[in-house]
Amino acid sequence: MRHAIKKKEASCACYSGGADPMHPRPFRVLEIWKELSDTFSMSLTPEDGGPVIFAPGQFNMLYVFGIGEVPISVSGDPTNRSVLIHTTRAVGNVSKALDSLKAGAIVGVRGPYGSEWPLAVAEGTDLVFVAGGIGLAPLRPAIYQAMAERHKYGNIAVLYGARTPEDILFSKELLRWKARFDIDVQVTVDRATGNWQGRVGLVTKLIQSGGFDPMNATAYTCGPEVMMRHVVDSLHERGVPLDHIYLSMERNMKCAVGFCGHCQWGASFICRDGPVFRYDKIVDTLNVREL
Amino acid sequence: MTSSHGAVGQAHSKAHSAKETSIPVGTKVVIDEAGLSALFSRLIKIGYQPIGPKVRDGAVVYEEISSPSDLPVGFSDEQEGGKYRLVPGTKGSFFEYLVGPTSWKKFLFPPRHKMWSADRDGKGFTVENPTDDAPAYAFIGVRSCELNAMKIQDKVFGFGREDKCGAGIFSDPGYVARRSKALIIGVNCSRAGKTCFCSSMGGDPHMKEGQGYDLTLTEFAPSNGKHEFMMEVGSERGALILDLLPHREARSADVSMADSQARKARGEMGRKMVPDVKDVLPRNLRHQRWDEVAERCLSCANCTMVCPTCFCSTVNDTTDLKGDHAERWRSWDSCFSIDFSYIHGGAIRRETKSRYRQWMTHKLSNWHEQYGTSGCVGCGRCITWCPVGIDITEEAKAIKNTGE
Ligand SMILES: Cc1cc2nc3c(=O)[nH]c(=O)nc-3n(C[C@H](O)[C@H](O)[C@H](O)COP(=O)(O)OP(=O)(O)OC[C@H]3O[C@@H](n4cnc5c(N)ncnc54)[C@H](O)[C@@H]3O)c2cc1C
Ligand code: SF4
Ligand code: SF4
Known about the structure:
The structure holds 2 protein chains of 2 kinds.
Chain A (H helix, E strand, L loop, with lengths): L24 E12 L2 E8 L12 E6 L3 E6 L10 E6 L3 H7 L6 E8 L12 E7 L3 H13 L7 E7 L8 H9 L4 E6 L9 E2 L2 H7 L7 E6 L2 H14 L6 E4 L15 E2 L2 E2 L6 E3 H8 L5
Parallel strand pairs in A: 7-8, 7-11, 8-9, 9-10, 11-12
Antiparallel strand pairs in A: 1-2, 1-6, 2-5, 3-4, 3-6, 12-15, 13-14
Helix pairs in contact in A: 4-5
Chain B lengths: L9 H9 L9 E5 H13 L2 E9 L2 E6 L10 E6 L2 E6 L16 H4 L3 E9 L4 E4 L7 E7 L1 H14 L15 H9 L1 E5 L27 E9 L2 E8 L2 H7 L5 E2 L2 H17 L8 H7 L5 H8 L5 H5 L6 E7 L5 E8 L9 E2 L2 E2 L4 H20 L9 H4 L7 H11 L2
Parallel strand pairs in B: 2-8, 8-9, 9-10
Antiparallel strand pairs in B: 1-11, 1-12, 2-3, 4-5, 6-7, 6-14, 10-11, 13-14, 15-16
The structure holds flavin-adenine dinucleotide and iron/sulfur cluster (2 copies).
């Protein structure tokens, strides 16, 4: 029962480069912009001019001088080797400090860490991305990659649920994707406000009607843990095999290199065996309360 | 764990340059008290900082020591669930005591230490390593279970691993540096305590050849003014040190005296771990027993602090008043604290039963999957130092007997 998903050698080219895996590498903030009332994105470039290499699904530890360090998934395009993009919800100490930075500021970066959304295993199948809230950010690199190699896959569905229309992340981009016609983008909100014309209801409803062949699909889901449980149930109900479903887990993390012990979940260290897991391998762990 | 390991401490190389030795690894000799004194002065002379047992505040703890007179001379101890008491032992004995509340991990993986500091400069900031001023330690009095615990932490922190960074596996350079420099002088247990259970965790009160010590002592109880120790050489490093001490060859009588001491200690083992605990626990994550133990457990974290293998830590970031100088400190943490599992929205393991379950299943089961070894060596510390006497062997047995 090994939970790890095979990683590329990418984890060897860790940004922290030097001998000490706990040393942050300085990156400069190129731009920082608001996405939603509580969510922002920033683009970063390494001060040492080296490349930015990561696989979709991986995350970095972002350090704000003197304040602290938090795990944040990469949300940018994996084919862009010069900038790193992170999308963060400002919820506490460190994430709010990140939010208050200006272009030109220096952020410490360690990473990339963790397992990736495996797309290679899905070649020839339909792809289903199911995201809730901020969970669209960690999935976006995988969506970019799938679109960049569109011919390798069957149908592609992006199913996204947000609390209200004001909470829809990357809304302009979702519209652009929708306009491509070779990808099925559907958005729903829990609660309609203003002049919302779109769907209202849980993201699981989109699964029931989504345009993909469940017997020949690979699904990737990211969002609050309860939401992911329901998503898996719905996918399974439609007939997607459990070993074709991947999800990304979140736990407290202090080091991201397997020393601090905080991210343990059953026998897994989420920082290195995860955050992306294949559902059938962790179903027993997921079903135990407070593990 | 021989001298072939990577980073070479100053003391280590000094010991090497002293001279060549013809004493092979595995040699058994006998030294007396004068030999033991000579060992201390030798170690200090070649640059080691001796660390060993010492009586402080009613317990045997590991601290800096400089001669045999610092040892717990004439002390023994009584241990039970939630109880520890120093008592008079054989007059003049040095090593009759058993393991106390401290372990060697506090030297290799310090309870609190600075990981790095950073200073703002014109463009941003630069990160610097603190100069590691930890000396080369000579650990005197390492018990067999404790050496096993050290080897378990070696796996956690990546000491002795060939691949430095791959598949998400990393090494902690500070730990590796301190560990490579450390000299290990073991002491075989002349007795076992009521909370000991190393035998059922794959260990033994006496060291085995190749276990990873540099030198090991077996103390023969002092009588009629004679106080001798059998010394076994475990590494070339150890041989170089022994070479300079007054000693005589061990006779077969010495060897059989040591063997009978080992048999006696094995027979005295106070506790026992149920054999297939590794597979039993994951099947019983919803067992009633977790609720029962949680009624007694105070979530005080004592068990994790005294355990020689527990490795969890947290970090703390600070700045000076001007905000130009920042530091990151790492300190021991415990899965028994509520903040340990905090993520935005609240802690994952809110209930004591989830925290106790995390600790115990990690120790006895998940560790196997993570590191290919149990996380428990059967030293008994968590039983002795639990304020309410919760006993990991008892809990395991109860779950096995009544679970799936
Ligand atoms: C693998 C991974 C990827 C993530 N990706 C993203 C992302 O792309 N965008 C995003 O907005 N958030 C992401 N998160 C969550 C994000 O790390 C937390 O929101 C953040 O740590 C909160 O820290 P804080 O100091 O602002 O909040 P506080 O509430 O002040 O937290 C205090 C400390 O608790 C810990 N902590 C709190 N919440 C979390 C959490 N949810 N996960 C892990 N540790 C936590 C951190 O060590 C933090 O410093 C991710 C978490 C993980 C584990
Ligand atoms: S779990 Fe208890 S008996 Fe086992 S090594 Fe840790 S302190 Fe010793
Ligand atoms: S088991 Fe005992 S020592 Fe451990 S946290 Fe509970 S009360 Fe404290």
